[in-house]
Amino acid sequence: MKIHMEQGRSLETFEKALITLEQDQEITGIMIFACDADQWTPDQLDPLLTRCRKPIWGGIFPEIIFGEQKLATGTLFIGFTQPVKTVIIEDLDEEPASIRQAIERGFGREYTLEQTMFVFADGLSHGIERLRDSLFQTLGSMPNYVGGGAGSLSFSQSPCIFTSRGLQENAAVLTLATQKSGIGVAHGWQQVSKPHKITESKGTHIISIDWVPAFDIYQEIVEALSGKRFQDHDFFHIAKAYPLGIAYQDLEMFVRDPIGISAENHLVCVGDIPTNSIVYVLHGNTESLLAGAKETVETATKAFELATQKQIQEASVTLVIDCISRALFWGKAFSTELNAIKGAPKVIGALTLGEFANIRRDYLAFHNKTIMTSFLE
């Protein structure tokens, strides 16, 4: 695996980095992580992406990770040397059957156990759960899933998915790599409310909780816990510290991030929340979030050593997918979270709008406010 970090924004250097990896005979495919602040457009990049003769996948994110720092500008190019197969889902509003067929056509009956599936999707699409369901129904829990939601903190959709067909919106790109990996996933958020039932929802909108308008319930709980009033602050200023946790069988709760209130007074989240789900309001502090980050390293280390019979220092790269809202919660102290991964080889990553990862080997979930550490062979 070959890594090239392009500091700043320059179309000329973007093209040069892409051509260098394309012409390298060892490289089989190219993963690209770029920053939203650089304001790349299809008009600028599509001629370069579509000319490249090797598979391309990745996304534009609020920020990226390189070494021990997060960056708001610049582009990461990661050249793979193992065989890869790529599937592009150009419209996440397609029917589930169409998405499943595209996955089946692209990967066939590939034996995916001990392989790694990279999943990058428009994080503001309403089709995220449709994609997740289709992936899990088609490939199950055999591969290690690694990826996240691309997009902007403006919460306005725009082209953000890198593919060989150009920069795309409301799309996803899936890449199956033969390399082994070890992953760890955790969040560190703690339950601070009694259980509540989602009595009506539609996609990413929660309409009612316990038969009461959703925002009314959420507002009552969070204002009591925080001592702050939503009418005095921007919604996300308060909500970023009080996500929702969805109970799922005996697994760790996965998290949903409330990001706003719709015109109809619905609670809007990143990712779907199904009707009849049982949810809790969660809260955390720097200690609990740091414990979650450290847990991912421990879990990923054990999984990598078991899968490869190698030590983590022999990993080709450490890929960190961390939710941007965790970084917002940490503020200037975010380096503390990255320090949990200190000493790992070749750390790269992205701050995402949601994270795709297995929960143990049982279930593929689209997480929010979660950190995933993965060691790649």
From TrEMBL:
**Bilayer-spanning residue ranges:** none
How is this protein named in the record?
Answer: FIST N domain-containing protein
Q: What is the lineage of its organism?
A: Bacteria, Bacillati, Bacillota, Clostridia, Peptostreptococcales
Domain FIST, first and last residues per copy: 26-213
* InterPro entries membership: FIST_C, FIST_domain_N
Q: Domain FIST C-domain: where? A: 214-359
Q: Which Pfam families match?
A: FIST (PF08495), FIST_C (PF10442)
Organism equals Tindallia magadiensis
